[in-house]
Amino acid sequence: MVRRATGGRPAGRGSVRGVRRPELRLPPLQPWGEGALEPDGDYDGLEFRELDLGGQDGAGARFMDCALTGCAVDGTALGRARVLDSVLTGLRGVGTQFAEATFRDVELVDARLGGTQLHGAVLERVVVRGGKIDYLNLREARLKDVVFESCVLVEPDFAGARLERVEFTDCAVKGADFGGATLTDVDLRGTAPLEITRGLDRLSGAVISTAQLLDLAPVLAAAMGIRVE
């Protein structure tokens, strides 16, 4: 049985409310045998280790108390999947489809992903730790109590997303798009570099450092039509 945190960390960093992190304690797991993922499959208490899941169709599947370790997920179809109380470690792949999926009480560790589709997804009590994710599509997604920690995000797309109690710690964020996003208690102070290409006008619910403000000043000036000579 997985036990998770019921309270948030103390809100000691300025006025930003603390993020509620998952505390995962997986039960003894059974290894997943041969075979492919199935649409709307039900996977409970299983370990998927060093498997090639590329191109498989697990749309609408439910993963509960599972561990996916060192798996390839190139083009894997997991749209509308539910990933609950699980740990995903060392996933690698391009074009993984998680559109409209639900992640709740999940740790994603040391992922190497590109073009991952999470548009319309729901992430709640999720930690993304380590690794690098290129072109992460989180358009229209809902993120609540999410931590990005010690990872690199290249051109992440948060356009139209809703972020509440989201924290970036020791991260690099390059070319982020926040156009049309809604931010509440979002802490960007642990991000270096912090590069935002669109949506600077949507950062009213975020906290940044003085140094980050200076770095963003040219982009802010351009967005406001201010000439600096």
Automatic annotation (TrEMBL):
InterPro entries: 5peptide_repeat, Pentapeptide-BTB/POZ_domain. Residues 1-37 are annotated as: Disordered. Residues 1-14 have a biased composition (Low complexity). Signal peptide: none annotated. PANTHER family: BTB_POZ DOMAIN-CONTAINING PROTEIN KCTD9. This is Pentapeptide repeat-containing protein. It comes from Streptomyces capoamus.
